[in-house]
Amino acid sequence: MSSIITIPQPPSNPRDRASRDLQMGVTCASDPDTSPEDADADVDDLKIELASLNCKEGESSSSDTEQKHSDRRESLERLQGRGKSRASLERSAPVKSRTRKPSGAEAKIVLKEERANTFHDFLKFVYPHLECSITWNNVEGLMNISSKLCVPALSKQCLTFLLTHAAGKPIKAMRIAELFEEEQLYRESSRFVLDNPGGWSESELGTLSQETLLKLEKRRNWFLERVLKLGLVNVAKEYQCCATCPEPAVCARLLDERWRQAYSSCFRFGPCQPSMVYRYLRGLEGVTPPLTLTHLTCQSHAKAFTTTLFDRMFSLGVRGSGSGADPAPLGARVPGVQGPVAGPRRHFLYCSLK
Q1: Cα 286 to chain center, whole Å?
Q2: Which residues 6+ apart lie within 8 Å of 148 measured at CB?
Q3: Which of 27, 45, 311, 353 to pair with 292, CA 20 to 30 A apart?
Q4: Pairing between strand 3-6 and 27-30?
Q5: Which residues have a Cβ under 8 Å from the Cβ of 48 and sit 6 or more positions away?
Q6: Which of 351, 282, 346 is CA-nearest to residue 320?
Q7: What would the pLDDT profile of 302-354 be if each residue is shown by its tens digit?
Q8: Rg of the Cα trace of the chain?
Q9: Which of 154, 149, 174 is nearest to 163 (CA)?
Q10: For the segment 24-78, what is each residue's pLDDT rounded down to a tens digit?
């Protein structure tokens, strides 16, 4: 009698799940040609072999458990810094000397095209926790650096400052408008330059371009020509009072007297200025005694006449004429007029960039 025995081997790696899932056991198959005595002997031999295998498996499992515990202790010691590996790493690592850096500037920025103060103000605008104050001293530099670095928010703030403060330094504002081609700033600053023709020195005017100086001169001559034409107007002949006026000749004479007086007041303090001409001739303000007619309708009609005459003479309201506001129609009689017609601002004379 003979037997065929299949004994699966124990796993060499106890952590291998595939080998752990294999079923342990013995498969026996008997051979029909063997005798019963031989079969009993073979069974005894199998029992002995199984006992020895079970002993070996127990020893291997105990050794695996001890190995796990030792690995855990070693990893714990490494984490706590008491292991040999930590000490060996510290010995092998190079020792770095801790030296304090000297106090002072850590970096230097060389600015060849911009001033340091201008760049400092630019950084104040960029950082949200700082505040950049725009003044006449740094507005030109900030406009330049904002245009170079494409910062439209800063350019807008600088332009707002210049538009609201153009009356303080109109020559500088006009020069900045030339450099950066700002049409609105150029127009607003030219109003104040033309309003005070003799108040600027040669050094200040020298900062402007020749093209701008030529524009200012032409605009000034145009203004003086029309002022002279207003002085030639015979108001007593051309004015006709309202239809309900009981004495139209008296109203015309009184208006002519106040008109002559207002015209003389335009040259009281030197060369005539657009703002003063606007005040005296258009609204008949500052004339002593003021214009007082007998009826309210006559008074309103007389002021409407001077307003319309002034607007038509200086082309106020005509597009491209260098002045604003729509002119009222010029007529001898303006029915239903309750007061002077609304007109432009008193700095009505300006130059355009293009």
Answers
A1: 46
A2: none
A3: 311
A4: antiparallel
A5: none
A6: 351
A7: 999 999 999 999 988 655 555 554 333 333 333 333 333 334 578 899 999 88
A8: 52
A9: 174
A10: 444 444 445 545 555 555 556 667 766 766 666 666 666 777 888 888 788 777 7
Residue-wise pLDDT for 231-289, tens only, equals: 999 998 999 888 888 888 999 999 999 999 999 999 888 888 999 999 999 988 888 88
**How many other β-carbons are positioned within 10 Å of the β-carbon of residue 227?**
18
Residue type, 307: T
Cβ partners under 8 Å of residue 113, min gap 6 = none
Q: How many CA atoms lie within 13 A of 41 on its CB side?
A: 7
Tokens of 12: 């060499």
DSSP 351: -
| The most confident of 113-127, 136-150, 319-333, by mean pLDDT | 136-150
The CA-atom distances, in angstroms, between 346 and each of 8, 121, 134, 276, 278 are 113, 36, 28, 8, 6
| Alpha carbon distance 301, 299 (integer Å) | 5
Query: For residue 43, what pLDDT is reported?
Result: 58
